[in-house]
Design goal:
Radius of gyration: 19 Å
Strand order of the largest sheet: 1-2
Largest sheet: 2 strands, antiparallel
Shape: globular
Distance between the termini: 41 Å
Number of domains: 1
Number of helices: 13
Number of strands: 2
Order of helices and strands: HEEHHHHHHHHHHHH
């Protein structure tokens, strides 16, 4: 059953994505601007294929699916945002309502306010991190793949759902790897973050894994987005505005390009996931120590990126264009 679900998810995702990409005008174009990292217009909204594949591969499986309705709401508002734009306040209200609905339907035995805030933050930070070729897709394959492995170790049927999600992402990732031919869009990134949070909470609730495990698995994204948010808050920046001050964006700006940036982050993702699964299997009590170790490693990497970003004078240029709306040359960004 697990194999069949994965095959169906991958096949439907591949077919839908191919149809969307081949027929010009079906997907909106992501046009380069002062805050993007691309030099040409690229279709966005490829995440639609992921959800078509995943739902086709798993909807027929037995068992309750309390995530389905809330996920559908998040997908709908994200698609609308891709197509015509949505006011940030309305978008946030939908995210909060969807998270609250899942908390009520799933009935997690924890602080519901904390759960809702964690879900909404994860949904949005995942979207923030979807700005460089292959990055969000690789995090999905590694992150949900690690979830699937851990759920399988715990004997949970959720491993089938998670593996099918990985299978649905792979066709998109093949077309999103540098140089990207299609982008995820809000319709892909926001729901992926939403699912990362609710599966993480569910796994903790059901004792598939300790609380540190989902945090560690998605730590490369959580750390980058959270550190950047704090950095901008301390500087007095308008945090709701688009920018390119995330550490992965800075790497692209200082000349690493999309390929090398993806290679670094993919290495971190695989290293974090592999070590997390090893500790989960053989020494779960050491998980908090591993979380601290990887947090320090990421902090050192971010400090090095910050140093080189400022040394090359990109930091000042980025801050200036954030306030003026003008960007600098993108010739080295691809």
């Amino acid at each position: 059953m697990t194999g069949l679900a994965a095959v169906i998810a991958a096949a439907v995702s591949w077919a839908v994505l191919g149809a969307l990409v081949r027929r010009a005008g079906l997907l909106p174009l992501d046009v380069p601007n002062a805050r993007s990292l691309h030099v040409r217009a690229i279709p966005r909204g490829g995440g639609l294929a992921i959800w078509a594949g995943w739902i086709a591969g798993t909807l027929w499986l037995p068992g309750a699916k309390p995530w389905l309705g809330p996920l559908a709401a998040v997908i709908a508002v994200s698609l609308l945002d891709d197509l015509r734009g949505v006011h940030p306040a309305f978008r946030l209200m939908v995210h909060l309502a969807a998270a609250a609905a899942w908390v009520w339907l799933a009935g997690p035995a924890l602080n519901p306010i904390a759960a809702v805030l964690a879900i909404v933050w994860m949904a949005n930070l995942y979207n923030f991190m979807d700005g460089s070729d292959g990055l969000a897709g690789t995090m999905a394959v590694v992150g949900f793949g690690a979830y699937a492995a851990a759920a399988w170790l715990a004997g949970s049927a959720a491993a089938t759902l998670l593996l099918a999600l990985v299978a649905a992402v792979v066709p998109f990732l093949l077309r999103n790897a540098p140089p990207a031919r299609v982008l995820l869009g809000d319709v892909g990134a926001v729901p992926l973050g939403f699912l990362a949070a609710i599966f993480g909470i569910t796994g903790w609730q059901e004792r598939w894994w300790p609380a540190w495990f989902p945090i560690l698995i998605f730590l490369p994204f959580i750390a980058d987005a959270t550190a950047t948010l704090v950095y901008r808050l301390l500087r007095g920046a308008r945090i709701w505005e688009a920018h390119r001050e995330h550490y992965y964006q800075r790497l692209v700006q200082i000349g690493w390009g999309h390929r090398r940036t993806l290679a670094l982050y993919a290495g971190l993702m695989v290293g974090v996931a592999g070590s997390s699964l090893g500790v989960l299997a053989w020494a779960p009590a050491a998980g908090v120590v591993l979380l601290i170790v990887w947090t320090v490693v990421l902090a050192l990497i971010f400090a090095a990126i910050e140093y080189h970003w400022r040394r090359r004078g990109v930091g000042l240029s980025a801050l200036c264009c954030s306030s003026s709306g003008r960007g600098f040359s993108h010739s080295r960004l691809e």
